[in-house]
Amino acid sequence: MEPCTDIGATPRPTSAPLPVVPAACSGTLGRYLARRLVDIGVHDVFSVPGDFNLTLLDHLIAEPDLNLIGCCNELNAGYAADGYARARGVGACVVTFTVGGLSVLNAIAGACSENLPVICIVGGPNSNDYGTNRILHHTIGSPDFSQELRCFQTVTCYQAVVNNLEDGHELIDTAISTALKESKPVYISISCNLPAIPHPTFGREPVPFFLEPKVSNPLGLEAAVEATAAFLNKAVKPVLVGGPKLRVAKAQKAFVELADASGYPLAVMPSGKGMVPEHHPHFIGTYWGAVSTSFCGEIVESADAYVFAGPIFNDYSSVGYSLLIKKEKAIIVEPNRVTIGNGPSFCWVFMGDFLSALAKKLKKNSTGMENYRRIFVPPGMPLKAQKDEPLRVNVLFKHIQDIVTPETAIIAETGDSWFNCQKLRLPENCGYEFQMQYGSIGWSVGATLGYAQGAKDKRVIACIGDGSFQVTAQDISTMIRCGQNTIIFLINNGGYTIEVEIHDGPYNVIKNWDYTGLVDAIHNGEGKCWTTKVRTEEDLTEAIAKATGEHKDSLCFIEVFVHKDDTSKELLEWGSRVSAANSRPPNPQ
User: Fold this and answer.
1) Which residues in the chain show pLDDT less than 70?
2) Residue pair 258/358 in contact by the 8 Å Cβ criterion
3) Which of 9, 58, 439, 464 is most buried by its number of CB atoms within 10 A?
4) How many CA atoms lie within 13 A of 350 on its CB side?
5) 483-to-69, 413, 480, 526, 528 alpha-carbon distances in Å
């Protein structure tokens, strides 16, 4: 049976009864959890062993449809589960009590901010130690074992502490189903002495999940569609803008239906890139205020009505709160609510239902597209480099654009890669991921590991700055162990360039590493890995030819040297505006 991870998915009926394990060899909690992960589509689990989770790991390894991937640290295991969830719809990681749990916490917080269902499993204390006055190792020296749980309560949508066998199956099922329904991480702690003990409650194969479909209130849906259609049909030059919550709402197809039916210009917010088809004939680029794609920002901000589907307006996506968007002209479509202008709002109206129904009510209006075509001028090409001229960032990304295909996926690290990768034109079916809401530097190394493991039909191209790489570099090792053929462009500009453009100081300069030398040492002759250093366009052309040719089956690590002040023009503008927002003086009391 194929896993059912969509909300409302129903398992295919089968005539064969679920097998019952004989009483003499009743199933165990460890096997039950392993089967549940496989049921929802998790076939790779990212882990770091510790004495509280070792028995549980034995049972995960014993599951033939589950691959346990050991990571170099818990933070990267969490980032890998995040990347895997982006590729497969759900991810999982396993760590040990407190020292592992608090280490992975930052990654789980990032997954929460990005609405990703990640199952975070922690090997917990022996069940006999709960309620005693004992002090355990891996704790802060207190007999209160709830510190880790309390930390996870703010970044997960459900927490299960399994310290007895009678209700273990119920707690596990509730946690996993809640993660899928809410599209948020969950926390499951399992006492270290329980995974291997047979118990009758695990005697049958798990019954496949059934997640009740979320259905819009019919009257609310009708009222929302009628009011929105009336609002838009009287507008002269409306536009559509897709946001990052299209994913959690599972509404990408419905959004395209609306674009097809309406004829409106189609833009995407920066954090929604990859969720809106850029090959669509009405696609006009990224709407990001002052750093939008050329001509896109002008069309959006001059519109007399705009539909934002699944937006997140934070200080970064609004370029320091400088968007020229008027609330009275906006229709904001959230996953479960629609708001028109300054009101009214319609609740329990789900985005997919709403967009599909609205598509049938709108009059075709191509005025916005006609205006866009009148002002559009094709982008220029970077100035041709002279022989042996030091490589420029705009030349680098011109060459990266040439290798972006439907069989690739882009991972953009926090920093100037946000802005340069944003300008890449994505062909149909090309993946694209970055972490804009949380913006944790170093995220991309673990996320690249997880995404590549979950999307083996794609070759991942990761663009990572040197400062970010220094945070999480170790799991290049795990990529090699897994036989991944990712291309990593390590952009060596000597520091935290994005921070420089917000607020400069000596703390933004980092110690330079021999990055290819480090990766060669990690490689150590085991597995397939190729590294090279690039300083000119000629070097880059040769490196890309080898990475896509003779080394196409290897992990390819290309260290690119660029000037410390060589940044995108968008970062310069964005940094100035975010700096201004950060430095606002206190309001008068």
Assistant:
1) 1-26
2) yes
3) 464
4) 16
5) 12, 22, 5, 10, 7
Cα 434 from Cα 412, distance rounded (Å): 5
Give the DSSP letter of residue 164. S
CB 185 within 8 A of CB 116: yes
In the block, tokens 């890669």 appear at: 417
Tokens at 515, concatenated: 């990055």
Helix (H, G, I), strand (E, B) or coil at 51: coil
Residues 460, 466, 471: CA angle, nearest 5 degrees? 85
Pairing label, strands 44-47, 91-96 = parallel
Residue 11 structure tokens: 């398992």
- How far apart CA 245 and CA 507 sit, in angstroms, is 35
Bridge-based pairing of strands 459-465 and 487-492 is parallel
pLDDT for 9 = 39
The alpha helices in 360-405, defined as continuous H runs, are 367-375, 393-402
Q: Answer whether 510's CB lies under 8 Å from 473's CB.
A: no
Check whether the bond before 49 is cis (ω within 30° of 0). no
Residue 296 CB burial class (10 angstroms; 0-12, 13-18, ≥19): buried
Q: HEC string of 280-348?
A: CCCEEEECCHHHCCCCHHHHHHCCCCEEEECCCCCCCCCCCCCCCCCHHHEEEEECCEEEECCCCEEEC
Give the pLDDT of residue 14.
Answer: 38
Q: Report the C-alpha gap between 175 and 185 in whole angstroms.
A: 9
